Amino acid sequence: MPELAISTTAISKTFDGKPAVRGVSLRVETGSVYAFLGPNGAGKSTTIRMLLGLLRPDQGDITLFGLDPRQHRGEILARTGSLVESPSLYAHLTARENLEIPRRILDASRSDIDRVLKIVGLENARESLVKTFSLGMKQRLGLALALLGNRQLLILDEPTNGLDPAGILEMRSLIRQLPTEHGITVFLSSHLLTEVEQVATHVGMLSQGEMVFQGTVSELEQMRRPFLRIVVSEPESACALLTAKGWEVRAVDGHLVASDVKAVAAINRTLVQAGIDVHHLATESASLEEVFLRMTRAEVR
Amino acid sequence: MFLRVLSTEYLKLKRTLALWMILVSPLVVVLLQFIVSYKRSGVFLKDGKDIWQMIVTQTVEPWTILLMPLFITLETSLLAGLENADKNWKSLLALPAPRWTIYMSKLAVTITMLLAAHVVLVAATFASAVLLKQIFPGLHFGGMPLHPFAVPMVKVSVAALLGVTIQHWVSLRWQSYTAAMAFGMSVMVISVFAVQSPAIGPWFPWSLPMHAVLKGAAGHNQITLWSLAGATLAALAGCWEFTKREII
Hints:
The structure holds two protein chains of two kinds.
Chain A: E1 4-15, E2 18-24, E3 27-29, E4 33-37, H1 44-51, E5 59-64, H2 69-79, E6 80-84, H3 95-106, H4 111-119, H5 135-147, E7 153-157, H6 165-182, E8 185-190, H7 193-196, E9 202-207, E10 210-216, H8 217-221, E11 226-232, H9 235-244, E12 249-252, E13 255-258, H10 264-273, E14 278-285, H11 288-296
Parallel strand pairs in A: 4-8, 4-9, 6-7, 7-8
Antiparallel strand pairs in A: 1-2, 1-3, 1-5, 9-10, 11-13, 11-14, 12-13
Helix pairs in contact in A: 4-5
Chain B: H1 2-12, H2 17-47, H3 52-84, H4 89-92, H5 99-135, H6 147-173, H7 177-194, H8 208-213, H9 220-244
């Protein structure tokens, strides 16, 4: 049994009678980068707030490092760094002073401030006021706050929100190095699969407050069902013809998609015999994005 | 842990308006007092009366009735605003400090700021009297004894504790600067009327400091006791609510 950094058992949370999280059971292995995916409003932030003790679950249990937060809140939070949505910073203080606040509470050494500033590449902005920082710098300082002290788990809620492409790449590279270089487990939420598929080892998918998938990235890859992509001269007639013959076919962006890949020859023959020109007929696999869409049944960017 | 959290609260005050208010608010009162004393110095020169008591009254009463309630409202709102501004509660409460230490250290900072403002008020009043003496060497100051000044200021400080504690809870309870300011202003206006009622005045938390300085008001011991007991209860109740609060 792998050691678990986070484990929840059927946690639920309701706001004003509306369920936000329904029976979510998370298993986050130590040393993994766990991507917690779901469209906006799926319940990711609510789950994260419950993990950090900011909200109490109505039902279910949470353990972090095998400890119950109701009895070991201090010990758990000393080992858990977090960045929830936008970084919480004091704009009138310098980067160092912002880090000094958690440093004192965590009783970490003064040199730790320099260590985390170096990790996030802000060592030259040490004495600059945060109100002069760009959004990307603030996000990196937020990550530095989360890394301060002896953190073994990082909980990051939409860490690339508001970042430009360069900032996203930087953040991705930072997250990727955390388990390997610093031995930190990362639990990361996002509504963008493409953003996390390059950094995550494990994935949990949330839709309308419920877990719809949990496993490794390779297990998710296996769910990419193959399909036939057909480009023809008359898509509407071809779709009607193939559907009438009993095949599951749908029109997507001017071409057809059929689910029965074994019927490639029969489909080709049927179309040609009906006088429809076939320009392209090939077996393809669904992208992870399509798998995500299918599972969450929601719009993602 | 409490002292560590308390030290972070003082650090957060750096470069803030809240810190400047400790100097500015009492100095406004002392400046007004100095102008009044300067204008009326001719009468005191002529009569040869001791002007010190008038200076003390001209400082303590406007501060207690007008400026101090505004100061408390503004300071508690500004302190709470430090956490509300960037939704800092979610990261502050995700740190391994017990929640009570955060609530109590913020209350301690507010009380310290009030006491610091009182020290500034007393020191600046003495300085203004020295200046007046330089301008009008013939004025009689009776040796400027500390006692008639320090005693009412200590009473005001203690009597203000209940109002401070409640205002502190209100500022942290609602993440709206306007709500805390509106509450503070409203109770300040009510207190001016409440102080005139022998039945309500001695119990209304925001009237207590006025009772501590106004002549013929209710017994000071009762006010001190009620303020201390009420402040302790309000602090404990506010702290309990804060520890149970959910951060959405």
